[in-house]
Amino acid sequence: MSLPFKAVIPAAGLGTRFLPATKAMPKEMLPVVDKPAIQYVVEEATQAGIQDVLIIIGRNKNNIANHFDQMPELEERLRAKGDHEKLLKVEHSTDLADIHMVRQGDPKGLGHAVLRARRHVGDHPFAVLLGDDLIDERDPLLTTMMAEHERTGAAIVALMEVDDDHIHMYGVAAVEPTDEDDVVRVTGLVEKPTAEEAPSNYAVIGRYVLAPNVFDILERTEPGKGGEIQLTDALQELAADPNGPGVRGVVFRGRRYDTGDRVDYIKAIVQLASDRDDLGPDLRPWLKDFAATL
User: Fold this and answer.
1) In CATH, what number is assigned to the domain containing residue 85?
2) Partner of 248 for a Cys bridge, out of 64, 105, 154, 267, CB 3.0 to 4.6 A?
3) Same domain flag for 25 and 54
C-alpha cells in the first residue's frame, strides 16, 4: 500500500513587491476577498485529500501559525453573541488539516525551502504548492497531478501556456507529447529565459508533485540563477536521468490567480468576488458602471 501524500507550502519570502503592507504582515496573509491567500492554498491541498501540511516559514511569519491555531477568546465571544456563521469560518481555518511549521532560516531559494521539509516528509510522496498561484477550486489540478505521479512515478510539474512577453517571469519546459491529452514529457527546464531562449511557451506554475528522492538531488544542488538553490535545477537532473521515471507536465487550462504581482493581486480579488453569490450581485453592476467611466 502506497504512503499518503503530504503537502509542503513554502512561505518564507519577504514579499518586497507589496511593501509597506508586508513590512510586518506576511505576504501570504494578505486577504484575497475575506481569506488570506495561504488559506486558499491549504484548502486546495485538503480538497485533494491531503491532511498533513507543512508550511515553511521565515522570520516575522508568526501570523501564519496564529491563523491556523485556535483562538478560544474570539471563538467564545462569537459563540456568546450567537454569531454562528462567523464562528464556523474561524473554526474552519483551525480544522482544515494537521498543519506543521518549520523555519527556513536563511532564504536560499525555493530548492532550499523544499529541502527543509525532508525530515517531515520522510518517505512520503508530496506536493509543493506555492502561495503566489491560487488555483480555482472549480478547476481541479492537484488531483490530476497526484494521479499521474502514482501512475508513472515521475516528478510532476504544472504547466500553463503563457505569452512570449511574460515568459521571462517563469521556469520554462522543453516538452514532448505523450499519449495522454494535456500531459507532456519534460525533457529540460530553463529558469526565467528570454523569449528567444525559451524552449516552448509552457511555463511552470506553482504546483509540483514529487517523490522523496528529490531531496538527495537538492542536497548536492549548487546555487544557480540569482545565487539561490533552484528547484528547477533538481528537476532538470531528474529529467535528464535515462534510468529514472523522469519529469512530466500536466497542462492546466483552468482559472489561475497570480497574487504575486500587485495588479494581478487586485484582479484576483475582483474576479473571485464577482463570482461569489454573496458579493457578485452587488459588485458586477458596479464594475460595469465604473468601467464605463474610464
Assistant:
1) 3.90.550.10
2) 154
3) yes
